[in-house]
Amino acid sequence: MTKVAVVGCGVVGSSWALVFARAGYEVAVYDALPASVQQTLAFVRTSLESLPPDGGGSAEDVDVVCARLRAATSLEDALTDAAYVQESAPERLEIKRDLYQRLDAAAPPHVILASSTSGLPASSFTDHLVHRERCLVVHPINPPHLIPLVELVPAPWTQAGVLDEAAALMERVGQSPIRLNREINGFVVNRLQSALLGEAFRLVEDGLCSAADVDKAVADGLGLRWFFMGPFETIDLNAQEGVAQYCRNLGPMYYGLAKEQADPREWHAALVETVEAERRMLTPANSLPARRLWRDRCLSALVAAKRRVMHEEQT
Amino acid sequence: MTKVAVVGCGVVGSSWALVFARAGYEVAVYDALPASVQQTLAFVRTSLESLPPDGGGSAEDVDVVCARLRAATSLEDALTDAAYVQESAPERLEIKRDLYQRLDAAAPPHVILASSTSGLPASSFTDHLVHRERCLVVHPINPPHLIPLVELVPAPWTQAGVLDEAAALMERVGQSPIRLNREINGFVVNRLQSALLGEAFRLVEDGLCSAADVDKAVADGLGLRWFFMGPFETIDLNAQEGVAQYCRNLGPMYYGLAKEQADPREWHAALVETVEAERRMLTPANSLPARRLWRDRCLSALVAAKRRVMHEEQT
């Protein structure tokens, strides 16, 4: 497989175009708005020019990578010879249903149709297709050219081979795929984030500490290990004999905490205002764009550093 | 304040000795077992010799830093001229209660008595003291010489000025203090970890994905931002207008997930065995010590990289 199609040229689709082109794939780029396609091409060039090779950019010449991108003139044109379609259209059910009907009609049955959706299960917009068995969710963490994780989520009718092929492709383009065994609200990533955010808001609402202190607890504490080990490996290494011993020792303590946390709460207006006010003290509204650039620079530099450290450890 | 006492020379106390000596403080080190004191002194030297200055070591000469450490011959000797005591004794209530009685009797009333305890509220082992108002929890994430976060948790009788002073000291020695307004089970860090672990175990128990895939979801996804931004800043920058807009858009989705997650579960033996088996496939039991060294090398190198990136961003 050397040709892929990127359908939908928003922020997510643009980053996907970079991911595939950086990895050597020919990428047909399509959006209903031709101007969006041009924005994607410009985004890829600008990113490659500004990012270090191991921090989202490429070791290859920028022109060489950009030459792999082609502005498709229609959906059908984008699908020409493509073996994989990464769709990143707006998150509206009717849009996806119509789009997948067109994709299903235009793409030969072996072509994988992968959706970037973060919220819609594939079953909700592929049930009506002739070849729905080649559809799945391949959900990135934005932006995928900096953050490798992707969640592969099958519909009930997705063929196992389609998951295998999508996972293999993700590995080849340098992403880190995980596989869910079935559809579930929020997939894995947003469920984990939900659990952490739920407790974060609870602590602030109950007056235990400030939002800024919750942020510190993660950025100066828990997050340092979670940057390169997940929660299971973290606790596995925290007991002499491994995770089973950890669970024997601390399971009752965590069960006690879990019972205290089994209290789902809406984020009420007053609470949200408290957090918003705290955040605006630290980053005023007019500084948000600059802070996002700061975040992206940090992310790129730290991803590059992580690659170097992990590479040195392996060699 | 230039003199501190480190009481209790296990893994945590040893790391504390390094933190204070590295920052220029004279440190009296005491443990009921003199051999433990010697182990602490050796640990500090070995660590300084092996760690980069910005990754847990020191830019100063190793001998100069080590000369700030003194093996105290008794608890009373350790307290001589100390203005701050960091206690890291075993996590048993009777031990702490007896120890604090001795500390309270031997240390002048202005001396701060800070406990490294991760599980016992200060009120449980200081209620009987004459000068209990100078006691609090200063809970590190192990090891504090690599992980800056510390949680300051007052007992109901802890003076506000004691919290201020402890926070200022922590800042001066390069740690990152957060302040809880009152005692709560698990403090902030373990409550956040509990929320994430609860969902991690739930996903595995329900057959959604493997433990390894949960780890990837964090280490290759969520953890990349949490390494340098907390959960609140992460979502604040993820909506054009900031966190209030994020909550308006996604609050209902997260409330839906929170209701699905409001299901506190014990970590039953079968589940723990599943996770243990998965972990032992990746890291066999006899490789655990080597993997811990790997973890510590990664942690040190990544902390150093983070310091450099953050420093460059500030200048």
Automatic annotation (TrEMBL), chains A, B:
Domain 3-hydroxyacyl-CoA dehydrogenase NAD binding, first and last residues per copy: 3-181
GO terms for biological process, alphabetical: fatty acid metabolic process
Pfam family, one: 3HCDH_N
Cellular localization per UniProt: Cytoplasm
Sequence ranges assigned to domain 3-hydroxyacyl-CoA dehydrogenase C-terminal in this UniProt record: 186-273
Main location: cytoplasm
Positions bearing the site annotation: Important for catalytic activity: 139
Gene Ontology MF term list: L-gulonate 3-dehydrogenase activity; NAD+ binding
Family classification: Belongs to the 3-hydroxyacyl-CoA dehydrogenase family.
Subunit structure: Homodimer.
Protein name: L-gulonate 3-dehydrogenase
Lineage: Bacteria, Pseudomonadati, Pseudomonadota, Betaproteobacteria, Burkholderiales
